[in-house]
Design goal:
- With 505 residues, the protein is of the alpha/beta class.
- The chain contains 14 helices and 23 strands.
- Strands 1, 2, 3, 4, 5, 6, 17, 18 and 21 form a 9-stranded mixed sheet that branches. A 5-stranded parallel sheet has the order 7-16-8-9-12. A 3-stranded antiparallel sheet has the order 13-14-15, with no helix packed on it.
- α2 packs parallel to α12, α6 packs across α11 and α8 packs across α9.
- The longest helix has 25 residues.
- The two termini are 37 Å apart.
- Bound molecules: flavin-adenine dinucleotide (FAD).
Amino acid sequence: MTTTASTTASAQDSEEIQDAGYVDVLIVGAGVSGIGAAYHLRDQFPDRTFVVLDAQDNRGGTWWTHRYPGVRSDSDLFTYGYRFKPWRGPSIAAGEEILAYLDEVIKDHDLDQYIRYQHRVTAANWSTEDRRWTVEVTRDDTGQQLRYTTGFLWMCQGYYNHAKPYQPQWEGLDRFQGLVVHPQRWPEHLDLTGKRVVVIGSGATAATLIPAIAEEAQHVTMLQRSPTYFYAPPTTHELAVMLGPLDLPDEWMHEIMRRQYMTQYHWLARTSFEAPDDLHAFLMESMRPLLPEGFDIDKHFTPRYRPWQQRIAVVPDGDLFAALREGKASIVTDTIETFTEHGIKVSSGEEIPADIVVTATGFNMSVLGDVAFTVDGEQVDFTERVTWRGIMINGLPNMAYVFGYFRHSWTLRVDLVCDLVGRLLTTMQDKGATMVVPTLRPQDKDMQLRPFSDPENFNAGYVMRSQHILFKQGDREPWTHMHEHEQEREILPEADLDDGTLVYS
Ligand SMILES: Cc1cc2nc3c(=O)[nH]c(=O)nc-3n(C[C@H](O)[C@H](O)[C@H](O)COP(=O)(O)OP(=O)(O)OC[C@H]3O[C@@H](n4cnc5c(N)ncnc54)[C@H](O)[C@@H]3O)c2cc1C
């Protein structure tokens, strides 16, 4: 046999790339979404083989990446927790408590055996002939290259790059003599005692971090370009306090509190569209008594957008406001002109002294975990693709992804998407199909394409910065990605999987 260049290359490939075998389903990501997907898959299809691959060295995704002081949920844990696993603590939980909850899910359902850490998925190549994905993986611990094959790829990779946080380049940053820290990469033993800390940012991370470090630091300044909406609910809901003495079973308590929070959040979301001015007034008035006397609420706490057009930052029990009242923290609303040797100069001319600057400036979004996709040898350009219900993508066979809610708990959507994927796998089985592809019908071909996120609906900075690399939505169902749990909890369980937009073969 004549040895050609390509056979030599593939012989070398096979020496270097280890065949990791075939699984029925391959899940990417071991965060809240991937663990949820693994649970539902095992529960509904105990005979199917699967693995969960995660680039990080531990479970939890977001909650493993973000370990800065005070890290906690914004959402209540009754809806942020899965519907199948009761939450037993106060409504708002620390990052560590969320990790412990996820650990229990993993342990209760024996999921550890399926999870492979430090397995970074770099490429996924679909072959129609073979009816499978070939998934290229690099082990971050050993550098070894692995190759899995799978019949169904389930992307639970979250929405941002865990390795590279978003950090704008400010003028003069290189001459600053203090320390610059991003919350996504918090140093394990950072001593803040007696330090002057400036936190750049106005979102949930800044609001969480500031009260947590205010006691230890000499002073903390929140430096924001523009304000965010805040809401200060109690850490434990008054209904949970009332129900406490009844000693209800955990499952009941979980379900009652879930319904309570869903009702509350549905009202909040609806009001943000139907009566934004009323909601704005409500949020402002609920904050006012918690702020120091004479505080300039218009300047520091009045956002330029409608409530819920970006996430409302939750301040449980008003702890951020307490730090402001006690003078341990303060707010500067201005733009950065330049970093100096010893601090930050803002446009008003004021120089804010700093030993440590925390850049709570957010994320770089990633499209499906920055995995390079091909379908039958052709590279997939996601900017030309359209979502199918925010769960699949046109032209990508046997692939689903999980993207949670912006305005509600992410996990509410995880459970709904998992149900739909379960129905999809069953439908394929019933039809004897080995392939399902979301496909634009003739009547969909000229539909108007819309951005991934309509800025009128939701326009957080990290989403707007990344619209140009993301896939699109159409102007009609099922080519839209709905953001309202109140609608989707009715629509997704009923969604017709045989309406002609999913082509089975
Ligand atoms: C500090 C913070 C607080 C938050 N609080 C809330 C809240 O209160 N309520 C709420 O609803 N949402 C909140 N969010 C949003 C949060 O990201 C989601 O709630 C949820 O954790 C996302 O889970 P996930 O599993 O989908 O993704 P992630 O948590 O992002 O996990 C994805 C995992 O996939 C892995 N991965 C990605 N790409 C690859 C690849 N190519 N190969 C292998 N592995 C890969 C990553 O390493 C990661 O471990 C918060 C976010 C942050 C940063």
